[in-house]
User: Fold these one by one.
Assistant:
Number 1:
Amino acid sequence: MNLLIMGLPGAGKGTQAEMIVQNYGVKHVSTGDMFREAIKNETEMGKLAKGFIDKGELVPDDVTRGVVMERLSKEDIKKNGVLMDGYPRNIDQAIATDEMFAELGLNLDAVINIEVDPSILVDRISGRFICCTCGATYHKLNKLPKVEGVCDICGGHEFYQRDDDKPETVETRIKINEELSTPILEHYRKLGLVKDINGMGGIDDIKSSVKAVLDNL
Ligand code: ADP
Ligand code: AMP
């Protein structure tokens, strides 16, 4: 199964991706996670990406396409399927996605679109914190680890908040993503691939909605 997951920053893509990966065994390919890893490792690509990410802007398309193509070309994707999160983010990237999938013989099964009222995004993003070891996502009000200070997934004890989750950057990120996502969704709607999910409920309700869609594919 090969999927895209879409939604504004903070809509809950990463949170739902954890469930999808656990239940369906697909590989989670998040461009944001790959950039953060490259920044942590201080690679040349990471240094370049950081300049854009810190301002809430998009990393240039040619850089991002290279990163995605390299990851999608690995054998595990063909074997297990993929869940793309954070890519594509503009119509050129959507066309690049279609080209890369065609080149690699991957068939896109669905685009999961998590719809939320943008007014809730700042609260979701400002409460977000992440496990340093495995990247699992939590929220200081909505989703605390079951045992305080211990990651549910890997048992890690250290957590961080993303640098680009500060209010000034968040506004820019939401605005850019709102404008650019409409043509992407139109493109995939024409192909009959978009599955709209109401992202305004609790995490478990949304998981059930996503699962119902995927079980029906
Ligand atoms: P995205 O990957 O779309 O940027 P995340 O999955 O990281 O979004 O979610 C953003 C924040 O909101 C996280 O702190 C997460 O724990 C929390 N969150 C996710 N889904 C919900 C929800 N349905 N209700 C409340 N909080 C949520
Ligand atoms: P995310 O983790 O998806 O919220 O992404 C964090 C940041 O990484 C974004 O604000 C962008 O600066 C950058 N980024 C992630 N994915 C892409 C993409 N597909 N194209 C360009 N920039 C991206």
Number 2:
Amino acid sequence: MPIEQTLILIKPDGAARRLTGLAVDRLDASGLEMVAAKMVSVSEDLARKHYQDLAGKPFFENLIRYIRGEFHGLKDHRILALVYRGEGAIARVRQIAGATNPEEAAPGTIRGSFGRVTTKGQFENVIHASGNAADAAREIALWFKPAEILPS
Ligand code: UDP
Ligand code: MG
């Protein structure tokens, strides 16, 4: 397994429901290494770039509002962004997070335990985790400057 880096965001529902510590605890327990962390005020532009591949999906506009904390009254649109590094980090963090749809996420995963589908159909799934190596590289470069990430 190659050493990989992956981007994690504690989404506004995770912050509002005080699940940040739980998520970090599970990521740390995996043995992966936290190599970057910061609070970010999510601008409209950053949100749209982060989810650029989903532009045009019916849920896209609400997804932008969701990640900016507009459904959870998040102050300053702030969310916690993290980079974890380690062997097979991308797939391992996806496994800890669980499937995209919280109703399909395995019990015991973060999304399976704490995610919900709203009455309007939005997946509020607590945590973002990069989906593959290309996404991880693009997302990490979007959220972090190289100097903010600890060297390996
Ligand atoms: N999403 C949604 N409805 C859908 C698909 C996705 O609300 O039918 C939201 C959900 O919050 C998800 C995000 O859009 O986490 C990004 O979608 P993606 O397919 O990239 O899933 P992820 O990589 O987050 O598992
Ligand atoms: Mg994705």
